[in-house]
Structures are given as structure tokens and as C-alpha cells.
Amino acid sequence: MNDAYYSLPINLGDIINKKEQPRLSLKESISAWIHLLLVTRFGEFKDDQSFGCQIWEHDFENITNSQKFKEELQKSIQQSLIRHEPRLTDIKLEVQIEQTEIVEQNRRIKIKIGIKVRATLKKTNEAFIHLESFYIGPLSYS
Predict the structure, then answer these.
(1) Which CATH architecture best describes the domain 5-141?
(2) What pTM, to 2 d.p., does this model score?
């Protein structure tokens, strides 16, 4: 098994010029892959329509039942991680959803989604934790 993990995006110009590519540790590589999975909408990757997660299906919706949304989102992310990140085992997922007011030029209410992935690295049997958060639902008011 190849132990070279490269950062994304890969600079093809550097490859053509035979320059060394930045490398990542196993944990950094998995975190980068999870981030890519979380920021990708289902169907966005044409070669695998199942790559991605459900967060972006609800970006502009008014979420009326946050508990149901949380459960569906958690299940979606869990299934995507199991399917697309084979370097992890015993994946446990926590999703938190909260409304947040953001004051910039005007006041906006957004939904903050916090995601915590706990798992075990298959290769080393070490504990792995990945934390990420996103804002969705750009509802504005003055």
C-alpha cells in the first residue's frame, strides 16, 4: 500500500515540471477527504453520484423540524463516510444544529451545522477525530 498522501488540489503544473508535491499525514489526508465529501453535493461528482452529503440539499430551505433534519443529515453523512472513506472503521458521528445571528452589513439568521466524526484508523488502530462546521440558510431581515 502506498503511504504517500498528497494535498488537494494537486498542482498539475508542478507535476509536469517534476516538482515535489506537498504531502500530508494519514490523519490530515482523511480530514481533507472528509471535508471534500462534506462540501460536495450529491450528483456533483459525475463519476460517482453517491459522493457527497445531504447538507447542500437544504441550503435555502426553511427547516421546520430540526430534529428530523438532524437525524436525516447524520444518516446521510454516516453512509457517505462508510462508503467513501475505507481508511476508517467504527465511525461515530455527532451532528449539532443551531440558529445563529450574523451581523455584517445587515442582520442574517443562518443555521450552523457542527459535525464531529470519531473513528478508528484501520491501518494503525489509532483514534481519529474530525471537527467541521458549516452555515446554511441565508435568511435575512433588517
Answers:
(1) Roll (3.10)
(2) 0.81
